[in-house]
């Protein structure tokens, strides 16, 4: 009896070991998926992998947002001109191209937009009801979607600034991108501490942004 048990012991240990290994792998996968953004950002901060600065690009992202044609200020423009530069440029070391700030008076608008986009590593599109209900998309939005879907040479980051609900009213090209990668949703609570680069919203934005030489966020984060 003892000899039979001793003979079967290696098989039992092998089975138990295999089960433990499978459980450990499954737990590791679940933990990585749950904390993937934090893991990637931590890796960048610790190891500071070299970014491709010889790619001929000037900007890390071109920002596309619905322009307000009235004199009334709105949160989206405040977000674009104040909050985004403060977080992504001042605290994270990125360089943005913003229409109205980096396209100068006297330039041919269409030509300037195309050139700026060609020099940008990412395209950030702010999704709002104003953008959705616009009957004629802005020129930079049209070019951005063309570059993303037809030429497939620029990654798009979609920021859902307002609760859109269903996406049926969106352009088919935008719906395709949303189905493929989803959106990063701006939540109401983010307005309480909008200057923190370590909020969930800004962590996801940084995760989708290209590598930057300035990867130490902790010292500058609000």
Characterization of this structure:
This protein has 222 residues and is α/β, with parallel strands linked by helices. The protein is 49% helix and 9% strand. A five-stranded parallel β-sheet has the order 2-1-3-4-5, with helices on both faces. Strand 1, helix 3 and strand 2 (96-98) form a beta-alpha-beta unit.
Keywords:
alpha/beta, 222 residues, disordered N terminus
Strand coverage percent: 5-15%
How many helix segments?
8
The residue-averaged pLDDT reads 77
Low-confidence stretches: 1-5, 215-222
Helix residue percentage: 40-55%
Strand order of the largest sheet: 2-1-3-4-5
List the helices and strands and how they pair.
Blueprint lengths: L1 H33 L1 H12 L13 E4 L10 H17 L4 E3 L10 H10 L3 E6 L1 H5 L5 H13 L3 E6 L11 H10 L2 E2 L14 H9 L14
Parallel strand pairs: 1-2, 1-3, 3-4, 4-5
Helix pairs in contact: 2-8, 4-6
């Amino acid at each position: 009896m003892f000899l039979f048990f001793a003979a079967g012991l290696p098989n039992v240990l092998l089975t138990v070991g295999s089960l433990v290994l499978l459980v450990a792998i499954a737990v590791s996968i679940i933990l990585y998926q749950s904390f993937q953004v934090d893991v990637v950002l931590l890796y960048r901060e610790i190891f500071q992998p070299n970014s491709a600065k010889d790619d001929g690009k000037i900007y890390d992202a071109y920002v596309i947002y619905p322009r307000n044609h009235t004199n009334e200020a709105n949160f989206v423009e405040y977000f674009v001109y104040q909050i985004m530069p403060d977080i992504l440029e001042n605290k994270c070391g990125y360089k943005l191209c913003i229409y109205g700030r980096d396209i100068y008076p006297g330039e041919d608008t269409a030509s300037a937009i195309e050139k700026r986009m060609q020099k940008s590593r990412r395209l950030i599109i702010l999704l709002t009801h104003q953008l959705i209900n616009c009957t004629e998309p802005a020129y930079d939005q049209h070019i951005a979607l063309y570059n993303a879907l037809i030429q497939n040479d620029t990654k798009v980051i979609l920021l859902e600034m307002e609760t859109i609900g269903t996406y049926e009213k969106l352009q088919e090209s935008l719906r395709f991108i949303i189905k493929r990668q989803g959106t990063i949703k701006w939540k109401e609570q983010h307005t309480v501490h909008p200057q923190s680069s370590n909020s969930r919203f800004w962590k996801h934005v940084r995760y989708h942004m290209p590598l930057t030489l300035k990867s130490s966020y902790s010292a500058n984060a609000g």
